[in-house]
């Protein structure tokens, strides 16, 4: 199987604290920081060498997210206000293929996943990972043979996969994209459209630190601002398998939207999110392949570029324009779209249907795009734990 790592997953990538929008401004309020704003005097050679030695000696952390559709890995070292990615991997493995019909992980899907996990294991060993957390989400939560598969991964590859709860998944997603939350808003709806499930997290930003460049510890503490959350047992893979993903016309798309809308209305009925949206200080923050794909298409990128997408802002009009264009395309046309490709062409409209259902129930003007999520949340949490632990051990 060929390596289908995203171009943005490269060893030298530095995670920005707060990425700027596509036009350099935050439309919801105020201005965002650019990825690079440092104008301080450069250190002399001795200080620079000492700084580099410190970075090279810093412990290395690993985070693996085994989802219904993708297997993703990040390997990183702590940096001054966050972390620097030194290795990464991303491959579509479709672990949950056919799961909604059989209740089981198929032999082919498990074989594809094991191949990807072997690559991840080799990368972590080569980078001498000091501490890691390896998680699996919806497919392994619901499959009848998931424990057998987890045991097989442990026995054949030596990786201990942790099947996390939906609540843990929601909390990690928030920690992973916390630095992209607009502090000028009172509320934010963070969402992660996955392959087998979709998480929604309603955040009360009034309880958060106003620091525009939050530390790792402050990013983890954003979890304390969760006012409500839910996990819908529906994602791009399950929805596409139910309605078909290749030949999607307007009628099929509306049926998908209606299916999702019925589930979202239950969450709205309990928490009355629409009342806060009416006050105007609310924004969406999407962390998923759906929103990053929509952003890449809207920006007209000739190839997917993480640095252009992560942190950019889209209006509801932008999103719907891209959806309309995708609906007008043939399946082959979607396959040829550089920000979609053949492996996502049958899933992208299912993701757009989930996003459209959200926009209909909660009409908001602006959505921020995060090309970051569970892996970043894991790294942030692990590093913050070690910072607190080291602080307690340090002499006063």
Report on the architecture of this protein:
This protein has 396 residues and is of the alpha/beta class. The chain is globular. The strands form 2 sheets. It has a 6-stranded mixed β-sheet with strand order 8-7-6-9-11-10, sandwiched between helices. α8 crosses α15. The N terminus is likely disordered. The protein starts with 44 loop residues before the first helix and ends with a helix. The relative contact order is 0.15. The protein contains 16 helices and 11 strands. The longest helix is centred in the middle third of the chain and has 22 residues. Helix content is 44%, strand content 17%.
Q: From the alpha-carbon coordinates, what is the Rg to the nearest angstrom?
A: 21 Å
Please summarize the sheet with the most strands: 6 strands, mixed
Proportion of beta-strand residues: 15-25%
- Output the strand order for the largest sheet: 8-7-6-9-11-10
- What separation lies between the terminal Cα atoms? 54 Å
SSE sequence, one letter per element? HEEEHHEHHEHEEHEHHHEHHEHHHEH
The geometry reads as globular
In helices, the fraction of residues equals 40-55%
């Amino acid at each position: 199987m060929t390596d289908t790592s995203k171009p943005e997953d490269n060893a030298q990538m530095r995670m920005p604290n707060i990425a700027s929008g596509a036009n350099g401004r935050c439309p919801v309020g105020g201005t965002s920081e650019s990825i690079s704003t440092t104008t301080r005097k450069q250190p002399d050679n001795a200080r620079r060498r000492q700084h580099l030695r410190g970075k090279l000696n810093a412990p290395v952390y690993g985070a693996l997210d085994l989802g219904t559709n993708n297997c993703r890995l990040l390997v990183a070292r702590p940096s001054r206000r966050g972390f620097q990615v030194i290795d990464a991997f991303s491959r579509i493995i479709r672990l949950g293929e056919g799961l909604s019909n059989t209740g089981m992980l198929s032999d082919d899907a498990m074989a594809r996943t094991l191949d990807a996990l072997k690559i991840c294991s080799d990368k972590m060993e080569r980078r001498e990972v000091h501490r890691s957390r390896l998680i699996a989400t919806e497919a392994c939560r619901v499959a009848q043979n998931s424990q057998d598969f987890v045991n097989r991964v442990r026995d054949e590859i030596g990786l201990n996969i942790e099947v996390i709860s939906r609540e843990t998944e929601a909390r990690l997603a928030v920690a992973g994209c916390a630095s992209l939350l607009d502090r000028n808003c009172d509320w934010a709806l963070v969402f992660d459209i996955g392959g087998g499930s979709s998480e929604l997290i309603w955040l009360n930003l009034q309880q958060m630190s106003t620091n525009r460049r939050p530390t790792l510890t402050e990013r983890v503490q954003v979890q304390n601002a969760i006012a409500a959350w839910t996990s819908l047992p529906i994602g791009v893979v399950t929805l596409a398998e139910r309605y078909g993903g290749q030949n999607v016309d307007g009628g099929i798309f509306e049926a998908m939207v209606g299916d999702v809308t019925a589930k979202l209305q239950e969450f709205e009925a309990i928490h009355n999110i629409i009342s806060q949206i009416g006050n105007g200080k609310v924004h969406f923050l999407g962390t998923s392949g759906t929103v990053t794909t929509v952003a890449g298409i809207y920006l007209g990128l000739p190839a997917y570029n993480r640095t252009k997408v992560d942190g950019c802002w889209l209006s509801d009009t932008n999103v719907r324009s891209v959806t309309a264009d995708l609906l007008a395309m043939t399946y082959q046309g979607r396959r040829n779209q550089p920000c979609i490709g053949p492996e996502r062409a049958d899933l992208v409209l299912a993701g757009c249907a989930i996003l459209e259902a959200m926009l209909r129930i909660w009409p908001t003007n602006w959505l921020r795009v995060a090309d970051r999520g569970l892996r970043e949340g894991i790294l942030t949490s692990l590093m913050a734990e070690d910072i607190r632990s080291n602080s307690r051990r340090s002499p006063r």
